[in-house]
């Protein structure tokens, strides 16, 4: 007679290996010296206003239409509206100067009144072309530049940066500086939410939205930042009479949401090079029958993987998170949207919110059923990899506390500040690297070759 005490462990090991549970993740052994995250003082050089009375400041750009041959230029003039005009020309045709007019807006928040916030969309640009643009008039003109993405196509390489939860501390400055110095030369930033952290200051001091705008300009004026909204963008504060959610963010950051038939600037999609990027809002309704739910349901079948093989989702609150901070906060959206992510073979979901770095295995929990007692994430080659990039360096500090033991779905986790690079090579391969601030900006603390879920859907843990 067989010894049942021998068979049972073998059977258990077999079942666990089927479920992928024996493939344990890695918690980094890197120990970052703990220090307080401190906001840079208001008179720091990175916050200084540009010279000249009423000069354009807080300049930032984002993609201006669905396929990337338009750019939304945004800036602030502090004292007077002046002009909403943008002069621009391509490097190839410097004598052919053009201009476009935009709109101006402003808002009040408690005892703060914003400057004049301008948004101007430059349309019908050539693809893959460097443009210069000029803001302001007279002596107070400022010149910037950007390069449009290549025309959408399946094998078009493109290098995306990924950052989130930056804020405006000394660590934030290190993150942004390292990002800009990364020799991979990222061309477009995917920003996963929580920009200024103005709401961490008394009465949501909106002066900190202005200092943030000036701080980020050195990158945001020169390359498109594609932003998902985070909880620090909500600025809902009924105790001081501020009951309009997202008021500062929506006045300052525009998106081309109408081009993807979205009813809200908080969620939308764009196509860029070989990627289809879906931006979602963790803090807008997403339950069944809500506008965001209906929009995403209609959007996913429209993704044309023949033209854009890479399907990327940006959403602030992570759907998988093994830290003790914000643990399980992403569950409602996971239950709502994960089956669609798997059905439509999303390649990667980038999130923020948890102030640390984490990369998941390709797993799903779409069998979720609280009554069956068997619900846990399983290996699923159709599922996305979930990457948490809430490690931008904000005032709230790092999330050091992790759930123990590390769950099998978590491939790598580390409580350090840093930035990521998602480098698309062609329709089959992309290379992701994560760069912690404590290293030189070129050092990869974690990395992974991504195999496209449509064109090369093999397990990345093997050599394929
Ligand atoms: Fe957050």
TrEMBL record:
Q: Which InterPro entries match?
A: Calcineurin-like_PHP, Metallo-depent_PP-like, MPP_PAP, PAPs-like, PAPs_C, PAPs_N, Purple_acid_Pase-like_N
Give the Enzyme Commission number: 3.1.3.2
Q: Which Pfam families match?
A: Metallophos, Metallophos_C, Pur_ac_phosph_N
Coiled coil location: none
Span of domain Purple acid phosphatase C-terminal: 383-442
Q: Does the keyword Transmembrane apply?
A: no
Swiss-Prot/TrEMBL keywords: Glycoprotein, Hydrolase, Iron, Metal-binding, Signal, Zinc
Question: Which segments constitute the Purple acid phosphatase N-terminal domain?
Answer: 56-148
* GO terms for MF: acid phosphatase activity; metal ion binding
Write out the transmembrane intervals: none
Q: Which CDD domains match?
A: MPP_PAPs
Using the record's annotation, list all stretches that form the Calcineurin-like phosphoesterase domain.
159-357
Q: Which reaction does it catalyse?
A: a phosphate monoester + H2O = an alcohol + phosphate
Family note: Belongs to the metallophosphoesterase superfamily. Purple acid phosphatase family.
**Name of the protein:** Purple acid phosphatase
């Amino acid at each position: 007679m067989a010894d049942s005490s021998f068979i049972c462990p073998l059977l258990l090991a077999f079942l666990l290996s089927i479920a992928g549970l024996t493939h344990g993740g890695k918690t980094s052994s890197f120990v970052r010296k703990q220090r307080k995250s401190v906001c840079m003082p208001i008179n720091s050089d990175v916050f200084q206003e540009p010279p000249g009375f009423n000069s354009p400041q807080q300049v930032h750009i984002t993609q201006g239409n669905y396929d990337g041959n338009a750019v939304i230029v945004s800036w602030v003039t502090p004292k007077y509206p002046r002009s909403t005009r943008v002069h621009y020309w391509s490097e190839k045709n410097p004598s052919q100067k053009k201009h476009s007019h935009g709109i101006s807006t402003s808002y009040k928040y408690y005892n703060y009144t914003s400057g004049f916030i301008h948004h101007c969309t430059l349309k019908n640009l050539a693809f893959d072309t460097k443009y210069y643009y000029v803001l302001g008039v007279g002596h107070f003109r400022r010149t910037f530049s950007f390069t449009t993405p290549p025309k959408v196509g399946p094998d078009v390489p493109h290098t995306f940066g990924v950052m989130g939860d930056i804020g405006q501390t000394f660590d934030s400055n290190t993150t942004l500086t390292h990002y800009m110095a990364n020799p991979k030369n990222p061309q477009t930033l995917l920003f996963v939410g929580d920009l200024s952290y103005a709401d961490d200051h008394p009465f949501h001091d909106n002066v900190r939205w202005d200092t943030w705008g000036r701080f980020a300009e050195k990158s945001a004026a020169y390359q498109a930042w594609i932003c998902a909204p985070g909880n620090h963008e909500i600025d809902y504060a009924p105790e001081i009479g501020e009951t309009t959610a997202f008021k500062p963010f929506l006045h300052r950051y525009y998106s081309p949401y109408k081009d993807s038939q979205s009813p809200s600037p908080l969620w939308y999609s764009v196509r860029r090079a070989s990627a289809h990027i879906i931006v979602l809002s963790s803090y807008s309704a997403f339950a069944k029958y809500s506008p965001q739910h209906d929009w995403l349901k209609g959007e996913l079948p429209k993704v044309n993987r023949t033209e854009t093989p890479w399907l990327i989702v940006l959403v602030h609150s992570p759907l998988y998170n093994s830290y003790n901070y914000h643990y399980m906060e992403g569950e409602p959206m996971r239950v709502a949207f994960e089956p669609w992510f798997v059905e439509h073979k999303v390649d990667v979901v980038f999130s923020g919110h948890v102030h640390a770095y984490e990369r998941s295995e390709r797993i799903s929990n779409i069998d979720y059923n609280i009554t069956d007692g068997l619900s846990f994430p399983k290996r699923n080659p159709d599922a996305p990899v979930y990457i948490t990039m809430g490690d931008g360096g904000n005032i709230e500090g790092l999330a050091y506390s992790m759930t123990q033991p590390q769950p099998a779905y978590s491939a790598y986790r580390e409580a350090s500040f840093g930035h990521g690079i998602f480098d698309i090579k062609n329709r089959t391969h992309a290379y992701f690297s994560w760069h912690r601030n404590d290293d030189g900006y070129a050092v990869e603390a974690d990395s992974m070759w991504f195999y496209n879920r449509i064109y090369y859907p093999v397990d990345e843990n093997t050599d394929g």
